[in-house]
Amino acid sequence: MISNPRRHCTVELQALPSRIGQVRRIVSAQLRYWHLDPLIDRAALGVTELLSNVHRHARPDKTCTVEMELLLDRLTVSVRDHDPRLPVLADAEPLDTCGRGLAMVAAVSESWGVRPDGDQGKTVWFTLPTSTPAPARPARAPRIVTAEPAPRLVEVGAVSHTADDLAPAHAPARSAVVG
Questions:
Q1: Cα–Cα distance between 80 and 57 in angstroms, integer?
Q2: Domain locations in the chain?
Q3: What is the pLDDT along the chain (179 residues), one digit of tens a residue?
Q4: For the chain, how big is the Rg over CA atoms in Å?
Q5: How far apart are the first and last CA of the chain?
């Protein structure tokens, strides 16, 4: 279920590996729709890590809700599940095969956190800035444009073309169906 695609997107799902890939595609499509393509990789990584945590740790069930909210200069992505236990940011050893998910979320996001909801569960969220500051440009004098005639084109040499040279490399598909 997707609601209000302009500023808010909500997806309810079971945090199973096959569904996590679908949610990544939904997140990517929604960010393209909002013209936030530069955020796609970081948002997809963050939501993947949060959903993987639900899949691996949440009890009693794997049902969760992913929500994206676009405010003026910030995208907030959150995952709500029904497990009241709060996640812990761990220091993984170099040879550990898991335990780095929240550290990666922290590394790619502007901020992250957890909102407990008593015995009803919790919401883990992260934010991404939607704009980057423009690089400072050196001050320039205003450009004055005057109305001058366009420069004349001068023929430098004759070039001959065959009909094959002028044909497009790929002709558009045509239909024999009228209408």
A1: 13
A2: 8-129
A3: 444 445 899 999 888 888 999 999 999 999 999 999 999 999 999 999 999 999 998 887 889 999 999 998 999 999 999 999 998 887 877 777 777 889 999 999 999 999 999 889 999 999 999 985 444 455 554 444 444 444 443 344 444 444 444 444 444 444 444 44
A4: 26
A5: 36
CB neighbour list of residue 23: distance below 8 Å, 6 or more residues apart: 11, 13, 47, 51, 66
62 residue type, one letter: K
Residue with tokens 């008593």: 118
- CATH number for the 8-129 domain, one of 3.30.565.10, 3.40.630.40, 3.10.180.10, 3.40.190.10? 3.30.565.10
Provide the residue count of the chain: 179
**pTM exceeds cut of 0.70:** no
* Tokens standing for residue 139: 């001050």
- The answer to whether residues 98 and 55 touch, using CB atoms and an 8 Å cutoff, is no
Residue keyed to tokens 């990789």? 41
Whose CA is closest to 67, among 59, 55, 76? Answer: 76
Structural tokens at position 156:
């430098």
